[in-house]
Design brief:
nine-stranded mixed sheet, four-stranded mixed sheet, 33% strand
Length: 231
């Protein structure tokens, strides 16, 4: 079964954006670690029901000096403020990953390019196959799919840092996307249905990408709205 898993927010300041989102929503954050090969750091805000926001920004600025492609892309995308960078789905079937990759003419990715180091060593996880990669999904404003066979160690369950927020997410209820339902269904192909992704989807007809996410919480319904990633 394919369903919503996480949403990536790109920022030029990991701490500012995480603090602002936690203060706006009342939901605390946890530290997701960093990606040494990409120069990115990550914070996590759980929206409940095994869905979370991952906030990412450049923490190793040598990557920009060295003209590393991902670092330069993040710098470009956040020049005018935070943005929704990725809409990420999950499946408990590896066959779905291979089918989706084949439909898009690529091979599945085995783990994150550049690797990932968890802040807490016990939180280290094996490589997660997914498809397509960033350049062939997020940057086009389209979702990719991750293989998540076991939710027991899901990132949304990470302990919240004390003092960062007391409210709890109650699950995503709707998202707003650009384009149309037909556009998204064409992208998903036979591997999934737009009607069965675990949340209501509205389409605004604009450029592809994620525009807003609405979720329940112990503080009541809330919506986070940001600009989408752009080509």
């Amino acid at each position: 079964m394919i369903t919503l898993d996480h949403i990536a927010v790109w920022s030029d300041n990991l701490y500012r954006t995480t603090v602002e989102l936690s203060r706006e929503t009342g939901i605390g954050s946890s530290d997701g670690g960093y990606f040494p090969g990409l120069g990115l750091g990550q914070k996590i805000i759980s929206l409940g029901n095994y869905v979370y926001i991952e906030v990412e920004s450049i923490v190793d600025h040598r990557m920009i000096t060295d003209r590393a492609p991902m670092a330069l892309e993040l710098e470009r995308q956040t020049a005018s403020g935070d943005c929704f960078a990725g809409l990420c789905l999950r499946t408990d079937s590896l066959d779905d990953i291979h089918q989706f990759a084949k439909a898009h003419g690529i091979a599945p990715m085995e783990g994150i390019s550049g690797g990932k180091v968890a802040m807490v060593p016990a939180a280290d996880k094996p490589s997660i196959p997914h498809a397509p990669d960033f350049w062939n999904s997020w940057r086009l404003g389209k979702p990719n799919i991750y293989y998540v066979p076991d939710l027991g160690r899901h990132s949304s369950l990470a302990p919240v840092q004390v003092g960062t927020g007391d409210h709890k997410g109650g699950g995503v209820t709707s998202i707003e996307l650009g384009g149309s339902e037909a556009d998204l269904q064409k992208w998903l192909g036979d591997v999934a249905s737009t009607k069965e992704l675990g949340t209501e989807i509205t389409y605004n007809g604009g450029p592809d990408g994620l525009y807003a996410v609405t979720f329940d919480s112990s503080a009541g319904p809330q919506t986070i709205r940001l600009k989408p990633i752009t080509l």
